[in-house]
Amino acid sequence: MADEFEERLIHFKAARKLHKSSNAPYFLCAKTVKQYIDTIPEPYNKRLSDCYSALCEVTHPASRSVQNFFSESENIIVIKKDMDFHNINDFCRDYCDILYYLLQVVINHSLVSLKLINHLPVEELHTTIGKNKQAEDEFFEILTGWNEFKCSLCMYYKSFYPLHDSVLLKYESI
């Protein structure tokens, strides 16, 4: 498990596009955006793919990226100074569901990581998250993925510390 985790960390830190003749380890080879999007569960991966396509349309040089600054009707082109504002609002309206999901995923992983650090038996690493234990417990109960993670963490500690009841009690009460 540690090797897989280390390879994932190295991948996200150092992966890049490699020549086909390269003999570098597989985890140094960057994936395509589609490969990353495909790792996201249904139905979010389709929405994220659509969202990513819409962003590419307006950020990469193409007709759509230029059309953000004007409107056209009956062969008349009108340059509008607030067209980008309307386009941004339209984008947010069209993709608010996937943007919410992405923010939730990013924030949840960060918070779970901070909480995990507090449960490691290394006091020097502990964070200040959890000053109000009751509020933290209530928050983490509704946090997507925390209950599954908590069960995995307890199982890990039961296998890692089979003879240490004090450690088990601490992790079973997470």
H/E series: HHHHEEHHHH
**How many β-strand stretches?**
2
Describe the global form: extended
Radius of gyration: 23 Å
As a percent range, the share of helical residues equals 55-70%
Distance between the amino and carboxyl termini: 22 Å
Q: Approximately how much beta-strand content do the residues carry?
A: under 5%
Based on the model shown, name its key terms:
174 residues, 2 strands, two-stranded antiparallel sheet, disordered C terminus, extended, mainly alpha
Report on the structure:
This protein has a domain at 1-30. It is extended. Helix 3 (44-59) packs across helix 5 and helix 7 runs antiparallel to helix 8 (165-172). Strands 1-2 form a two-stranded antiparallel ribbon. A hairpin with a 2-residue loop joins strand 1 (70-73) and strand 2. It is built from eight helices and two strands, in the order ααααββαααα. It is mainly alpha-helical and 174 residues long. 2% of the residues are buried.
In short:
The chain has a domain at 1-30. 63% of the residues lie in helices and 5% in strands. The chain is built from eight helices and two strands.
Topology overview:
Blueprint lengths: L1 H13 L18 H6 L5 H16 L3 H4 L3 E4 L2 E4 L3 H37 L13 H10 L3 H15 L4 H8 L2
Antiparallel strand pairs: 1-2
Helix pairs in contact: 3-5, 7-8
